[in-house]
Amino acid sequence: MKHEKLVRDKIPIIIERDGRNPVVKELEGEDFHQALIDKFLEEVSEYNESHDLSELADILEVIHGVLAYRNVNFEELEIIRKEKENSRGGFYNGLFLIRVDD
After folding, report:
1. What pLDDT digit, counting tens, does each position of 32-75 carry?
2. Where are the beta strands (DSSP E) in the chain?
3. Cβ neighbourhood burial of 67 (10 Å; 0-12, 13-18, 19+)
4. Does pLDDT of 1 surpass 90?
5. 26-51: string of b/e by CB count within 10 Å (b at 16+)?
């Protein structure tokens, strides 16, 4: 079975325990970054279909992967998020902008 996608680090071991032979390659550089982006979009799509919290956890795990790739810790991202929330607000009130009249 062909998958051709980024998987969690322990997936090849799990596949081997099931008596199957995973064929993997280790991505680096921009190829790894692009695979993380593709995985993020895949997980967002899965959450959109299921609304399952485990899919949100998968999205968060991919974000942690991107941060590690970029040598940024989660606390730095959280500071940026809070700054944006303080200056522009969050997404808590369900406000949907229809238009801006001049």
Report:
1. 999 999 999 999 999 999 999 999 999 999 999 999 999 999 99
2. none
3. middle
4. no
5. eeeeeeeeebbeebbebbeebbeeee
